[in-house]
Amino acid sequence: MSGQKPKRRSECPLNASVEMLGDRWSLLIIRDMMLRGFRSYKEFMECYEGIATNILADRLRKLVAYGIITAEPDQSDGRKLIYSLTAKGIDLAPVLTEMVLWAAAHEDTGNQALVRLMREDKEKVIAGVRERWANRHASPG
Amino acid sequence: MSGQKPKRRSECPLNASVEMLGDRWSLLIIRDMMLRGFRSYKEFMECYEGIATNILADRLRKLVAYGIITAEPDQSDGRKLIYSLTAKGIDLAPVLTEMVLWAAAHEDTGNQALVRLMREDKEKVIAGVRERWANRHASPG
DNA sequence: CATAATCACTTGCTAATTGCAAGTTATCTT
DNA sequence: AAGATAACTTGCAATTAGCAAGTGATTATG
Question: N or C end of chain A: smaller count of CB under 10 Å?
Fold first, then answer.
């Protein structure tokens, strides 16, 4: 009786992705978790692009609701919440990778070290993300 | 003297992608071009998700500005514009593919025929897109 | 040739979202 | 006990999205 469907604009899988991730911030939060190992609200505030506090809170809430990340209280500091990527979140690694490679191929961008790694062996980079997140739930890395 | 840079929020290649494609419509327009062969304003209006006319005009304008698509007048009908994917636009095929596969893996979505094809041979689907768009510039259909 | 239809948009207006600054609450830390 | 810190809210102005209706330039029809 609680199973209310999300009610999408269409059945298309691309549309589902766009409805969950199609904004200017969600994927950057996931990037910071995946590549920079960020796990707390305060760390996300340090994102290069300067996200506003209310937007960050809103996006974290939505990402939790979509099952892309989880939030659990920190054992050693009651003020903190620790955010983790779920399997669903980790599975976004190929999406992020392709988006990085596309922009790097067609725009003038930074972080060429990462781009080079991705060009050389995309799968290896993705496997690295999976490894680093394999045993991270509830333990601040 | 005309070379004004886009002025991004950061140098990050993912951010560049998000700034160009991070909204609720741009990728759906590209999907309709890539997968459904759409090329005109009127066809885009038939998108499953029901885009508004002003938003469509705005997104087409931006996609042209980003060099992802081009617009040229139709030879046989002076009212029409024919939109085409550029090489940059075609290169989004891997991004779209990964987004489709991610949503199909984690959400309840439709178009399982396409999803099956992508799961069986991702590269083949992408190569198909490239082929279909190889000689399409200025010739409708 | 006049009228109607089509195509690709604009315009006007309202609703929703974004972003900045400031405030709040519950922990720590000293 | 006082101050700092973490994770948010709240208020409000500014931008963006979305709907309905209108425009202008072709093209098709009687």
Answer: N
- Given this model, what pLDDT does residue B137 score? 60
Q: How far is the CA of B56 from the C1' of D20 (A)?
A: 16
Q: Encode pLDDT of B3-57 as tens digits.
A: 455 589 999 999 999 999 999 999 999 999 999 999 999 999 988 888 999 999 9
Question: Which nucleotides of strand C lie under 7 Å from a protein CB?
Answer: 6-12, 17-23, 26-29
B96 touches chain A (CB under 8 A): yes
| Mean pLDDT, all residues of chain B | 91
- Going through chain B in order, the beta strands assigned E by DSSP cover 69-73, 81-85
The Cα B94–Cα B25 span in angstroms is 18
Chain B residues with CB-CB distance to A105 below 8 A = 91
Q: Best of B8, B12, B117 to disrupt the A interface by mutation (most A CBs within 10 Å)?
A: B12
Mind listing the pLDDT tens digit for each residue in B51-91? Answer: 999 999 999 999 999 999 999 999 999 999 999 999 999 99
**Residue A91, token pair as written in the block:** 């599975």
- What does the pLDDT look like over B86-114, one tens digit per residue? 999 999 999 999 999 999 999 999 999 99
Match 């990340």 to its residue by tokens.
Answer: A69
Helix axes B26-36, B122-134, angle to 10 degrees: 80
What pTM was computed for the model?
A: 0.92
Distance CA B63, CA B57 (A): 10
Q: Where do we find the tokens 């002003």?
A: B54
Complete DSSP assignment for A62-107: HHHHTTSEEEEE-SS-TT-EEEEE-HHHHTTHHHHHHHHHHHHHHS
Question: Is A49 an interface residue toward B (CB < 8 Å)?
Answer: yes
